Amino acid sequence: MEECRPILNIGLRGFTVATTRISHVDKAAEKLIYRGYSAKELAENSSFEEVVFLLIYERLPSPVELKAFKDRLAQERAIPPQVIAALQTRPHNAFPMDILQSAIAMLAHHDSQVTSYSKKSSEDMGIRLIAKFPTIVAAWDRIRNNKEPINPSSKLNHAGNFLYMLSGDFPQQENARFFDICLILHAEHSFNASTFAARQVASTRAHIYASVAAAVGALSGELHGGANARAMEMLKKIGSVEAVEDYINQEFDAGRKIFGLGHAVYKGDDPRAEILAPMSKALGERTGKKKWYEISKEVEKKGKEAFRKRKGREIFVNVDFWSASVYHAMGIPVDLFTPVFAIARISGWVAHVIEEQFAGAAPEPVLYRPDSEYIGDYCGPDECPYVPIAER
């Protein structure tokens, strides 16, 4: 029998499958670009609502447009009572990402535009989804803790409103601003696994709810989402600055990863992490819980040293490393870290779905239909003879 060919299990790495105008990771300059603008500069100077407008409409809004857009998002925050009632039937130990994905499908049932296929209807539905994501996540956290969901507040911006719905208390101004920055930094990141999933489904001309539900499903997998949650669990397991070095050595000896170190794209420290680290320090100092920042700094230092010594090369921190302690300091439960990521990334997903379906030169999106190579030569070059069940 001929020797079997190797399995081509490379996850499309190295293949360019589409063009995009939405975002760009400049590997040489270590920059993240949203529609021509530096994500770092947007985080320092803009609001999440402004960035959402940019991602969807391809330009920054005027003051009047931004005010109208903020008002529109605020008006779309509430979710149907039928969806709340359905969430109240779920087991309280259900995986939050599964809850979020199922709620998206339910929301489609309540959207009159779901059968309309146009750029305008997709924009409208996308804006409704962006507005409702925080409400779903906050409502679920309260339901699973036997509390009544809190209605959205039209007085707060997108970031502040989520923190309010989660805790029931109006957030401190610094917390709201820091969370707003986090949303901006997580809003978009080119063709990652969840974005590709959204575009693949969109290429079939499925509606935006189906595409976004697919993206949430992809993000729920541990190889894509959840790194910041595991980073926070790591910090809790370490417990003190003094225990960092022993923990790092134990993990390296066992061949395990140090969560938050390493990135599939950047060849230096993630530029987003450089913004989050000072936020972690400031929140730690204000809340009296500086140890999470201090442990993180020591893990970064000792982890890089150990990697250099053992592997002979450098490793760098990613965005998940520092977002862990930032979210924890804001009182966000660890198992909501990935849904919170989705609250930000939904803006990028919506932009990609619209681009996939309506920005091409052809009137229809190009259906994603890759080839595969069959290597299951179970009976050599011939088909296997069928054996009746009684004779097997």
Structure description:
The chain is mainly alpha-helical. It has two domains: 23-222 and 335-358, Citrate Synthase, domain 1, CATH 1.10.580; 227-328, Orthogonal Bundle (Cytochrome p450-Terp, domain 2). The protein has 16 helices and four strands. A three-stranded antiparallel beta sheet has the order 1-2-3. A hairpin with a 4-residue loop joins strand 1 (23-26) and strand 2. Helix 12 (244-253) packs across helix 14. The radius of gyration is 23 Å and the shape is globular. The model has no long low-confidence stretch (mean pLDDT 93).
Main features:
about 400 residues, mainly alpha, Citrate Synthase, domain 1, Cytochrome p450-Terp, domain 2, 3-stranded antiparallel sheet, about 55% helix, globular
Strand content: under 5%
- Overall geometry: globular
Q: Flag low-confidence runs.
A: none
Major β-sheet strand ordering: 1-2-3
Q: Please summarize the sheet with the most strands.
A: 3 strands, antiparallel
**CATH class division of the largest domain:** Mainly Alpha
Q: Which bin fits the share of residues in helices? A: 40-55%
Tally of contiguous helical segments = 16
Q: Give the CATH topology of the largest domain.
A: Citrate Synthase, domain 1
Relevant CATH superfamily of the largest domain: Citrate Synthase, domain 1
Total DSSP E strands: 4
Measured between the Cα atoms of the first and last residue, the distance is 24 Å
CA gyration radius, whole angstroms: 23 Å
SSE succession: EEEHHHHHHHHHHHHHHHHE
Chain oligomer state: single chain
Which structural category fits the helices and strands?
Answer: mainly alpha
How many structural domains can be distinguished in the coordinates? 2
Mean pLDDT: 93
Architecture (CATH level 2) name of the largest domain: Orthogonal Bundle
